[in-house]
Each structure stands twice: as C-alpha cells, then as structure tokens.
Amino acid sequence: MSISRVILGLLTLLAALMAVLIVIASPVPHADVHRQSWAFNGFFGSFDRAQLKRGFQIYKDVCSGCHSMNLMHYRDLQDIGFTEDEVKAIAAEVQVTDGPDDTGEMFERPGRPSDPFKAPFANEQAARAANNGALPVDLSLVAKSRAGSGFTGHDGADYLFSLMTGYEETPPADFKLGEGMHYNHAFKGHQIAMPPPLADSPEAPLDQQAQDIATFLTWTAEGNLEDRHRTGIKAVLFLVIFTLIAYAVKRKVWAPIH
Q1: CA-to-CA distance for 157 and 48, rounded, in angstroms?
Q2: pLDDT tens column, 141-171
Q3: 123, 148, 122: which is closest to 29 by C-alpha?
Q4: What is the average pLDDT across 123-132?
Q5: Whole-angstrom distance, CA of residue 101 vs CA of residue 6
C-alpha cells in the first residue's frame, strides 16, 4: 500500500471522526437535562391546543413580569385556539404607548391584536436595574436557542422543563453560591439569578406547569412546526409515488431489450 493511500485513509478517518463529533455536540452544555415525551415531536406530531393555552397563561401571569417576547403579536394567539374576541380582550388588558397625536404628544391606549406583546421594561438598562444587573432573556426564540445540536441533541423544551424543575433550596455542601443567586442543576454553572418562577399548586403540579410553558415557548419559536410536518408527509408520499411510476416506466421502456 502506498504512502499516499495511507495518508488519504487517515485524513478520511479524521474527517469522519470530526463529523461525528459535530453531530453529537451540544452548543450549550447543561449539567442535567431531562428528556420528555412531547406531543409535537415525531413525524405526525402536533401541538396540544389546551396545553398551549395553559402555557400562555403561565407566561402572562408569571414570565411576562420580567421577560419580553418581542417577536410575538397578540393576533398570533388565534393560532392556538383563542377566538378573535378573546384575543381583543387579552390585548386590551395592557396599555401601550402610541402617537404622536395631533398635538405631537405620545399617548397611552389599550392594546390591539396587531400590537406586539408588551415588554415589561422600557429598555435594557431598566431591565438590568430591576433584576440586580441581570438581563432577562427575550423568550420569543428561547426554545430554539437552548436546543442541543445534532441527532442526539435535546429539544429546547427538554431544557426549559429541566430548568423550571431544576431548582434546589440547598446547594451541595462543596458548592459556593453567589449572593442573590439560586442553585439550579440544569443551568450552566448551576447558579442562576432568576428565582424559581413555578411551584406546585392545587390547580397543577410543578411538572405539568413546566411542560405547559415549555410547549408554549416551543410554539412561539417554531410556529410553523405543524406545517413543516404536513409538508414533509406530502413530500415523502410524492417521492414514493414518483419512484413507483419511474420504476414502472423503466420496466416498460426496457422490456424489449430484456
């Protein structure tokens, strides 16, 4: 065997190993991410509308006090089962700044379905000042940004569920927790500025609440997921039928020769 072939073989092996490492890599290593079974996963997966509504309620009642969702508009809520009148009522619960009016002044008005979700703070500086210097992340695409990469990567929903359920009142004895921080075994570094946002309640256990908000945030990040699934099914059916027709034509055309 020539030296050039050996070198080529080694380079090919190295490239294959690097490809495998890229596939199984995760962009944000987390200590403890619990994989869940999600209704929206799989070839025929779809979102549970009741779960999405519960998740929105959690965002509205809990998360929206600190976290913005700048890419979402109130009218988008019709896609998860709210009626037009319900969306109008939800939007009207907030006051938004509009204008200028005829006198050149800005003014406050009730929200409309066409408005984006109202942000809790006017700017980044105000957000940091209210959260001990920490900037609450915008939640519009958080489920995508926290997903693992590659075929073995976890879903963003898995990470969000683990984060919501990963708080511990007492950190390990050898762990030094910073002032004002909270221990969470799913968060990188295990300490997070955000206090536990959810807790067990008579209405719903913590695990259910965590699944509901994780599902809702997956929908906000991937609102076209169900359309992609349907398109994929159509594409596969087309390819199957096309392959069968192509094979039948091939047999017909080459039959005299065979």
Answers
A1: 14
A2: 999 988 866 555 678 899 999 999 999 998 9
A3: 148
A4: 92
A5: 77
d(CA 185, CA 44): 33
The radius of gyration of the chain from alpha carbons, rounded to an integer in Å, stands at 25
Q: Within 13 Å of residue 209, how many CA atoms lie on the same side as its CB?
A: 20
- Report the predicted TM-score, pTM, of the whole model to 2 decimal places: 0.82
Per the prediction, the chain carries an average pLDDT of: 88
Helix, coil or strand: residue 167: strand
Nearest Cα to Cα of residue 98 among 76, 114, 74: 114
3-state secondary structure of 79: helix
Number of H helices, E strands in the chain: 8, 5
Lowest-pLDDT range, 20-24, 105-109, 206-210, 234-238? 20-24
Cα atoms in the Cβ-side hemisphere of radius 13 Å centred on 150: 13
Q: From residue 145, how far is each of 5, 40, 175, 206 by CA, in Å?
A: 42, 18, 27, 23
Confidence of residue 194 (pLDDT cuts 50, 70, 90): very high
